């Protein structure tokens, strides 16, 4: 499936998405979020799944800490998917962080977890088929 454009409208559409997976690879500096988006239009529910990847992550200690919290929650509950809602996901203005060319900073707020400010090089999104 092709990659989707990552725009402010894209981030706005992620509000209240269900976070199914949050996987951080510290060695690669890559965070993979699998999200289930539900919308209601014309008296019908529609579902779609997106995979959002933040790569080239710097200073990933906070991201790794949240990843460990999620693993503990999943281990304790015996569930395979997290099921927490995404409260907010948006790009922060460049004035809010170092102005290094090509870097992006994303605010990531997921229910019941610490808010993250993720400094990354690249953000991609791809639709994933529902099973």
List the topology elements.
Layout: E1 3-4, H1 8-13, E2 18-25, E3 30-41, E4 44-55, H2 61-77, E5 84-91, E6 104-110, E7 116-120, E8 122-128
Antiparallel strand pairs: 1-8, 2-3, 2-5, 3-4, 4-8, 5-6, 6-7
Summed up:
The protein has 2 helices and 8 strands, in the order E-H-E-E-E-H-E-E-E-E. With 131 residues, it is of the alpha+beta class. 18% of the residues are buried.
How would you describe this structure to a colleague?
It is globular, with a radius of gyration of 15 Å. The two termini are 15 Å apart. It has 131 residues and is an alpha+beta fold. 18% of the residues lie in helices and 47% in strands. It has an eight-stranded antiparallel sheet. The longest helix is centred in the middle third of the chain and has 17 residues, at 61-77.
Name the features.
131 residues, alpha+beta, eight-stranded antiparallel β-sheet, 2 helices
Strand content: over 45%
Work out the helix count: 2
Neighbour order of strands in the largest sheet: 1-8-4-3-2-5-6-7
Overall shape: globular
Query: How many β strands by DSSP?
Result: 8
Unreliable stretches covering 5 or more consecutive residues: none
Q: What is the end-to-end distance? A: 15 Å
Question: Averaging pLDDT over every residue, what do you get?
Answer: 86
N to C succession of SSEs: EHEEEHEEEE
Structural class: alpha+beta
Largest sheet: 8 strands, antiparallel
Round the Cα radius of gyration to an integer and report it: 15 Å
Q: Indicate the percent of residues in helices.
A: 10-25%
């Amino acid at each position: 499936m092709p990659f989707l454009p990552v725009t402010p409208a894209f981030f706005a559409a992620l509000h209240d998405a269900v976070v199914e997976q949050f996987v951080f690879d510290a060695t690669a500096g890559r965070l993979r979020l699998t999200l289930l988006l539900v919308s209601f239009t014309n008296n019908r529910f529609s579902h779609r799944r997106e995979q959002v990847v933040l790569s080239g992550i710097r200073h990933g200690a906070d991201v790794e800490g949240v990843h460990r919290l999620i693993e503990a929650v999943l281990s304790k509950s015996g569930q395979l998917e997290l099921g927490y809602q995404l409260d907010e996901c948006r790009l922060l203005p460049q004035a809010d962080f170092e102005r290094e060319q090509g870097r992006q900073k994303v605010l990531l707020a997921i229910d019941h977890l610490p808010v993250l400010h993720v400094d990354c090089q690249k953000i991609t999104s791809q639709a994933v088929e529902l099973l």
